[in-house]
Design brief:
Order of helices and strands: EEEEEE
Distance between the termini: 45 Å
Radius of gyration: 19 Å
Number of helices: 0
Low-confidence stretches: none
Strand order of the largest sheet: 1-6
Structural class: mainly beta
Helix content: under 10%
Largest sheet: 2 strands, antiparallel
């Protein structure tokens, strides 16, 4: 089964996917807003590659003239609830509270 091609806009961001998750223990985050981070493995300067040694970080390829051949693309990543550090080296960044949700636990008579 082959995936359908995705055409990416050249002048705007293209949404590639949506991330959903379940909070296994809502009590752990009920005291305040919950601001989960999504961190792409790509340094602030994409030319420097990934944080992990030997990894290219976010990798996109483009189909060239021959459908069996692809070429590289310049990748940029926008971190979610995470900011790059202003210094070189580790840690490369830290979580930030930009887009948060409130987790509320609804306890009723039948709640264990």
């Amino acid at each position: 089964m082959s995936a359908q091609p995705l055409f990416i806009a050249t002048g705007a961001w293209t949404r590639l996917f949506t991330l959903c998750f379940v909070v296994a223990d809502p009590a752990a985050v009920e005291s305040g807003p919950f601001c989960p981070s999504l961190v792409w493995d790509l340094q602030a300067d994409p030319a420097e590659g990934a944080f992990l040694p030997g990894s290219n970080g976010v990798v996109l390829t483009l189909v060239s003239g021959d459908p069996g051949v692809s070429t590289g693309a310049e990748e940029r990543a926008v971190q979610f609830n995470w900011a790059y550090a202003v210094h070189d080296g580790k840690p490369f960044g830290l979580p930030v509270a930009e887009s948060c949700v409130r987790v509320e636990v609804d306890c009723g008579e039948d709640t264990p």
